[in-house]
Design goal:
The chain is α+β, with helices and mostly antiparallel strands. It has helices spanning 11-20, 40-50; strands at residues 6-8, 59-62, 72-75. It has two helices and three strands, in the order βααββ.
Length: 83
Amino acid sequence: MGHLKRTIFAPIDITWLHMAFAPGNTMVGGLVLLEDPIAPEDLRLLVRARLLRYRRFRQRPIQPAPWPCPPIWEDDPGFSLEN
């Protein structure tokens, strides 16, 4: 396996991570409203062009060691938009 790029979470990322996994969380992270239906492949093309050019959208959060070590972002070696 090649070298994975890792970066430490920013404080705001830690806050969002804790909120996302909090018991009873009903937070919505994003919502897309479309005027007309879109084919799944067209949506994938749009996401590839607009979001996947940013590395963060191809990474996953991991906790390398117990608290107080901060979580880190790591390139997801198994990333697939189709998943």
